[in-house]
Amino acid sequence: MRYLPHMQPRWQIQNPDPEVTVSIQRTTGCHRAMAAVLANRNLVSNRTIRDFLEARLEGLTPPEHLKDLDIASKRIHRALKNKERILIVGDYDVDGITAAALLTEFLSRAGADVSYHLPHRIKEGYGFQPAHVTQIAVPLKAGLIITVDCGISSNEAVETARRFGIDTIITDHHSCTDNLPNATAVINPKRSPPDNPLQSLAGVGVAFYLAIGLRKLLRQRHWWVSRPEPNLKDFCDLVALGTVADMVSLLGVNRILVKSGIDRLNRNPRPGLAELMATCGIQPGRLSAEDISFRLAPRINAAGRVAHPGAAMALLQAAGQNEAHHAAETLCALNARRQTIEQQILDEIARRLERHPFLVDGKCLVMAGKGWHPGVIGIVAAKLANRYFKPAIVIGVENGLGKGSARSIPGIDIYQALELCAPVLERFGGHRMAAGLTVSSANIGRLQAAFEEAVEKLDGTCETGPTVAIDCELDFGEITPKLMDELESLQPFGTDNPAPVFMARKVVATECITIGRKHLKMRLCQPTKGDQTIEAIQFNSQAPLGGGKAFEKIAYRLQRRYYNGKVSLQAIVENVL
Q: Residue 246: pLDDT above 70?
């Protein structure tokens, strides 16, 4: 891609209170740098530090914090008793697919007659729709429909189901309006006050909580006397996948669920995920949240982006190794196809921006193109938002109608911005950082103007650019195995819990080679601080460097590298000055 230069981020060096860091060191015995990281995250008391680091399932918020969960559990119990057919309607992304897989498996173990439907992105579009009732639920003779990761704005579909005598339970986590569907139950953490500890659940997290509430009710009603009671830990792997992939907060309840899920994936992954991990080169027992984000999730998502999400469900439900291996290879092939399509769109945008550089001068970026694949425009929008540090909308136009994906930056609620643009939109939905929309091609110019005005109204400071938050200064000579153990205890890293970043001064690259297309592999040292060296890599570097290159300061994070049975320490260079 020729014209998408990275913005130089602003360095934000955090300065925790020295008395606080000394107190943390004294009471925990941790490294100075670890104490600074904990202080920066406002983890200062023994109890808050312990609760954060342990993150046990016993610390989960009770399901009673979700409105309508008890109503939904009772209705499902009735369906089980009466042997009603249950239809689960999901979504085509990782969050929706894992949520559908979780509830399908849990209800099956409870003895339910359960089926699922995952929509085709292009042929059906997002969400629970009236056609799902008339063309799937009615022929199936379903008595109950349960949505996962969708449905909060599916008023028409719910009314259609009611006309056919079918009850609906909505489980979703996307932003609510005042006009909720007239369903039997609407379970959405955003119906509760903002201080609700379940507010940041992903769609799969909401489905998991429904399973918690239902299992409890069924236990009270002696349902498990005649069948084994499911262990909910068995489903945490699915929760971890969907939660990390949906980029929701990894604090609080989500941290507990993801940590437990990653442990399950490392200890006893289901066959399909074991095969996918092997195909991605993830060593058994070494999977991290970063691996989910950059290796597993893109491949699982690829099915819904360029084909049908059923291919991803086949992976999650695979029982034997041959079936699992075939499903994993299918997803890898689909992901390669997705990457090709994505690059074609990015190249077209790059050429357009070369001809019209003023297009990036505003507070937002709106790009539209004929025939752009609706399955990949969300990734393109995310890359534009990240590259230019401004909210971005990418729209694929076909037959006079544009289907778009919007991605935001910290500080700008993209859903609120689209609410202000509602008069020029046909339809929209989503949450703070990501949304989807439909717009008439004739209104794309109006949308661009309205979106610019909306972003200006919501936040006038987005032009300040990206920042690199640095926890503290850390010389290479201070890095020890004990420090690495302590830093790794902060995982899983992700939204609201980033990997710690440190700063080193007067750094020299004694070795430097380019690997791949534009990644730099280096060996770094600080000549004025001793002879300690460290292996380093900088991804997507803007310019190749030679050995002997000196840096006044570098921002870096640390990780262990496992290769050929050996363990080494590696610095990931985030930025240089």
A: yes
Contacts of 529 (CB under 8 A, 6+ apart): 475, 476, 477, 506
11's CB contacts (< 8 A; 6+ apart) are: 467, 468, 470, 503, 553, 555, 575, 577
Q: Across residues 490-513, what is the average pLDDT?
A: 95
- pLDDT-derived band at 411 (thresholds 50, 70, 90) equals confident
- Domain 63-233 top-level CATH class: alpha beta
Q: Average pLDDT in the 82-103 region? A: 97
Residue ranges, comma separated, of all CATH 3.10.310.30 domains in the chain are 357-464
Would you state the pLDDT for residue 563? 81
Secondary structure element (H or E) that encloses residue 229, with its range: none
Decide: 197 and 65 in contact? Cβ < 8 Å.
yes
Q: Are the C-beta atoms of residues 294 and 94 closer than 8 Å to each other?
A: no
| Residues contacting 391, CB < 8 A, separation 6+ | 363, 364, 365, 385, 406, 407, 408, 409, 412, 414, 417, 451, 455, 462
What single-letter DSSP state applies at residue 266?
A: H
**Tokens 């000055």 belong to residue:** 577
CATH of domain 468-576: 2.40.50.460
Identify the band that residue 2 occupies on the pLDDT scale cut at 50, 70 and 90. very low
* CATH number 3.30.420.10 given to 357-464: no
- Tell me the residue type at 479: I
CATH 3.90.1640.30 domain extents, the chain: 63-233
For every residue of 17-62, DSSP letters joined together read -HHHHHHHHHHH---HHHHHHHHHTT--SHHHHHHHHH--GGGPPP
